[in-house]
Amino acid sequence: MTRSRGLLWTTVTLGLGRRRAHLEGMTVARILAAAVVLAVSAGPALAQDWPPRPGAPAVDHHRYQADRHRAEMDRLRARADQREALARQLEFETRLNRQRIEAARQPEPVQPPAWRALRTPEEERAAREAATRRRQSTTAGVSQIDDWLDRSRD
Prior knowledge:
Blueprint: E1 2-5, E2 9-13, E3 19-23, H1 25-47, H2 61-104, H3 121-149
């Protein structure tokens, strides 16, 4: 029988090549003691509450009011989330319906471009001269503004 020691485990080799690992005796006792100490000390610390002072009400109204407000805020947030989800769903359905309607719509027939009315050369000349007069009157009004903007600033 051979023994090899590790930090926590002792390996024992028995006859015919069989091996067994054992925890050290003191190590097991230490682990068990630490677990018991933790379990005993954590329980009362979590459940500890201060008793009300003499003459004070046993119920803390402010804490329960805060709990009610928190519950109401949670309810309102949930309703707002539901409304937002419904709005997104309706927006999506509206987009789908609009696409479906546009896809079912008959295309507009192609209209040939409107032909310019043919004029005589005298009418063309009169139209060109009228356009020239309009341009000159427009530039005359604009040139007054340009002259005022370009004035020398002494």
